[in-house]
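Re: that chain you flagged

S.,

Sorry for the slow reply, it's been a week of failed gels. I finally had a moment to sit down with the sequence you sent. For the record, here it is as I used it:
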Amino acid sequence: MQYTIFLLLVPISLALSAGVLAYALRRNKTPEILALIVLTMAVSGWLTFNSFELIAVTPEMTLFWAKVTYLFIGITPVAWLAFALQYTGTRVRAGPSAFWFFGLIPLITVLLLWFSPDEHLVWRSYVFYPVNGMLALYVEYGPWFYVHIANAYAVVIVGAAVIVLNHFRSQQLYRGQSRWLLIGALTPVFVNLTYVSRLVPGLRKDFTPIGFALSGLAFAMGIFWHRLFDVQPIARATLVDSMRDCVITLDGQNRVLDLNPAAVALFSRLGLVAPIDSYLGTSVLDLVGGWTELAEHLSQGIDEDVDLAVNCNGEQLHYACSTTELAVRRGRKIGRLIVLRDITDRKTAEATLRQQMEQLQISNEQLDAFAHTAAHDLKGPLSIIIGYVEMLGFYLDELTKDEIRQYLGLLNDTGRQMSGIVDSLLLLAQVHRQDSLVVDLLDMETVVADALRRVDSVITGSGAAISMPESWPNVVGYGPWLLEAWVNYLLNAIKYGGSPPSVTLGYECCEIKPAVEAGGEGDCIPGMRFWVRDNGQGLTEDQMTSLFTPFTRFHADTSEGHGLGLSIVHRIIDRLGGQVGVESEVGAGSTFWFTLPTVFAPNNVSE
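Prediction finished late last night. Pasting the structure tokens below so you have them in one place:
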């Protein structure tokens, strides 16, 4: 009767296995799906060839199919273990070699059955007897069989234990999955144990493959009821080891319990670690002692997020450090989780954004300056021109020729004043927007001579006395801009000088420091300091502070001008890699100076 029941259950069991197999074959071929496919095929083979064993008509064929069945009997437990490990994401330290070890005993069993002249090691004896038209095989087991069955039980139980542990560590959804997996794992173990130990009197047929088929039904319940493989638990190996963030696990005494690969890579890159295993169980300060900011933060024991910086081979790296308390037992911390996230790109982007905002602010201020000039400095001369033109149109018939010539001369002077303002604005705009500039080694004597020719009429009209060296050094710069700088300094000295003006030009060697805008870092470069000294009233400290800003003009009651000259000089010299300044004392005149490099350097022209 038991053999008939077995044959009746085989088609049902094969149908269940086929359903599970069909579902698995439609899925993406992930490792756990592949393991389930192998497990289902092994169970199907066990059922199929065990049935052939029963319906065989000769003892030889019965024995043949019984030996074939052992091929699948050996594969099934190993496939189950592989499935359990892959599903839970459990990492095996021994790696693939563990599966070779578990599969070695089934392989020896099959070889002993097929090729050993003394097969009694597996089957001590066997007899054939007819049952309901079938030929059944009853086996007395030899010593090696118990080695084989112990290995099979060990493999299945290890897989079941992995799922049990996962069951109690998982959330409710995963517990529903693992519950059905446990039923599927333990059912064939219980059925086979009943058969091998002869717990049921008269039971001679091994229903273990039916038990594995029932495990397929349990897997199907997990698949369709609890979304097995749609929602799987994520193990530590998948979650932590694959993270790009650095993860450090500490115990209650700040000892290192674990590091993920990203943390190992970071500290190795920083040169802060010997073999990483040597730091496990030691104070975290031994690990991060070379990273001062991180060491101070961890030693304070404050669970808050901070941004930290560290120098790595000359490169500044930035990390966001997040500290989380792992758990509390009876008011005592049992550990902390430190997560370091690389935010270097974000910090670089923020610095670039700040720099662009500062440049935008400067541009806006300069744009406001242009608007101020157009609305204020141009409005005055333009009003004069309009007034004289209207007056000429109204009184033209009453004016003499000399009066007309006088008014036309005033219109001409006012127009030239407006033209000078426009030229200054255009020059300031050119200096501001020109991103690239080709500098050259200039003969300063030629530049100074051209500047004196430009202001010759002013010198003659004011009676100014000019003194200067017999020779001038060469500097690195741009000729047209330096000409404008000298002209503005000379005009400023003559306008605000004494009566008559006495102007002295000169130079001296100096060193030029890197600009603050460029980071203020790097070596000084050799340069020249040129200066123009006058004999005017001099300036106070407050006046010198704002002197080089646009539209600043002192002594407005005695001098003409629009206050753009010195700001133009400042912008020109800054773009050429130098500095400007003034030294003055009230009642003792003023000395305006600028510096320029005498050698070519990458920062000669500021961007």
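What I noticed first: DSSP finds 19 helices and 16 strands in the chain.

Talk soon,
D.
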